[in-house]
């Protein structure tokens, strides 16, 4: 399995989590495996600002997350990320996309106020749960984060835990 490598600073800014560090990276932009899928999506949006709007991107891939049960202290987790960039963004747009997908899968999502952890605009984010299990979060990306990444347009995004969703579907 291969991993997407990113700047450690981006893991911290976007994911709120410092990932494992590669001691001798070939280049600075490849010093840590990503700890959330949002890092790659926002990087792609930073390079897509001259595309016709809206820009919609999704990705399903593995990230690394902390794990006390692993000898390395990290484990792989399959995540799904969805983004939408436009001249005007509304929370309801990404919410509608996510809700439709989860409902079609039969997951009966509920939405709860989330702590923004710096990535999302306060009051414009939600934790997604199904049958009491957290399966993701969505919201409007904080303008300060977008500025640090060189993104000029507003962005809404969602990140879902595919493995948690599969666990619920297989119950």
Average of the residue pLDDT scores: 91
Query: Which strand order spans the largest sheet, edge to edge or round the barrel?
Result: 3-4-8-7-6-5
Taken from the alpha-carbon principal axes, the silhouette is globular
Please tally the helical runs, counting DSSP H or I stretches of 4 or more residues. 5
Low-confidence stretches: none
Strand content: 35-45%
Major sheet characteristics:
6 strands, antiparallel
Fraction of residues in H or I helices: 25-40%
SSE sequence, one letter per element: EHEHEEHEEEHEH
Q: Nearest-angstrom radius of gyration?
A: 16 Å
- Oligomer description: single chain
Structural class: alpha+beta
How far the N terminus sits from the C terminus, by CA atoms, comes to 28 Å
Counting DSSP E segments of at least 2 residues, the number of strands comes to 8
What secondary-structure arrangement, pairings included, does this model have?
Layout: E1 5-6, H1 8-15, E2 32-33, H2 38-46, E3 55-66, E4 74-85, H3 91-105, E5 109-113, E6 120-130, E7 133-141, H4 143-148, E8 155-161, H5 162-169
What does this structure look like?
The chain has 171 residues and is of the alpha+beta class. The protein is built from 5 helices and 8 strands. The chain has helices at 8-15, 38-46, 91-105, 143-148, 162-169; strands at 5-6, 32-33, 55-66, 74-85, 109-113, 120-130, 133-141, 155-161. The protein has a 6-stranded antiparallel sheet with strand order 3-4-8-7-6-5, with helices on both faces. Strands 1-2 form a two-stranded antiparallel sheet. A hairpin with a 2-residue loop joins strand 6 (120-130) and strand 7 (133-141). The radius of gyration is 16 Å and the shape is globular. The two termini are 28 Å apart. The relative contact order is 0.17. The mean pLDDT is 91.
